[in-house]
Amino acid sequence: MAKKEKEIKETPVEEVTEETPEVQEEVPATEEAPEVNPWEEKYNAERDAHLRVAAEFDNFRKRTIKEKEASYGNGKADAVAKMLPIYDNLERALNQPTEDAAYKKGVEMTMTELVKIFTGLGVEIFGEKGDTFDPNLHNAVMHTEDETLGENTISQVFQKGFKIGDKVVRFAMVQVAN
Fold first, then answer.
1. Using CA atoms, how far apart are residues 155 and 176, in angstroms rounded to an integer?
2. What single-letter DSSP state applies at residue 132?
3. Is 130 left (phi over 0), alpha (psi -120 to 50) or beta?
4. pTM
5. 167 near 77, Cβ under 8 Å?
6. pLDDT digits (tens, 9 = 90+) for 6-34
7. Sheet order of strands, 153-159 included
8. What's the CATH class of domain 53-177?
9. How many whole angstroms separate alpha carbon 65 and alpha carbon 69?
């Protein structure tokens, strides 16, 4: 056995070397991140989701209220627009000369009641002779030169204009001087 031990001892041992990269980066000493509790993480995620749903619902509620108010205003404007031919016909009837006083009185009463209904709905009637022309409210269909009237003055009204609040239901059809 001694011979075997000698052979083992005389056998050169291979050195094990590890290959290391030429440049080693130093890892700076950092503070250890606090340990995150999985329950707290889940709670925060659920809370965030809940807040988002609550915000979406609040936005939906506000949008629905706006749409409801707008639909009422649009419906009112449509109803008024459908009654405007009646107003125009009553106005033409009032401008016609007639011998029948009862007929004239009936047309006047009907016109007064219609204007009262319009006023109750918040409808404003505009477009009078002598007013200043406003392209946002008036539709100029004719132009005339008249020295007695000022610049951009309405000289004749063919059809009255109607608006509800800031919304124009029908533009006034007018003739503008100068």
1. 6
2. B
3. left
4. 0.65
5. yes
6. 555 555 555 555 555 555 555 555 566 56
7. 138-144, 172-177, 153-159
8. mainly beta
9. 6
Q: Identify the residue whose tokens are 């000022």.
A: 150
The full set of domain ranges for the chain reads 53-177
Distance, in Å, from the CA atom of 156 to the CA atom of 154, rounded to the nearest integer, reads 6
At 34, the amino acid letter reads P
The amino acid occupying position 2 is: A
Among candidate residues 164, 166, 172, 176, the one with its CA nearest the CA of residue 76: 164
Please report the DSSP string for 70-108 in residue order: HHHHHHHHHHHHHHHHHHHHHHHHHHS--S-HHHHHHHH
Amino acid at 3: K
Residue 138 CB neighbour total at 10 angstroms? 23
pLDDT digits (tens, 9 = 90+) for 27-73: 555 566 567 788 999 999 999 999 999 999 999 999 999 999 899 99
**Strand, coil or helix: 63:** helix
The Cα 125–Cα 119 span in angstroms is 9
C-alpha neighbours within 13 Å on the C-beta side of residue 2: 0
Strand arrangement, sheet containing 123-126:
123-126, 161-164, 167-170
Cα angle 89, 94, 96 (rounded to 5 degrees) comes to: 95
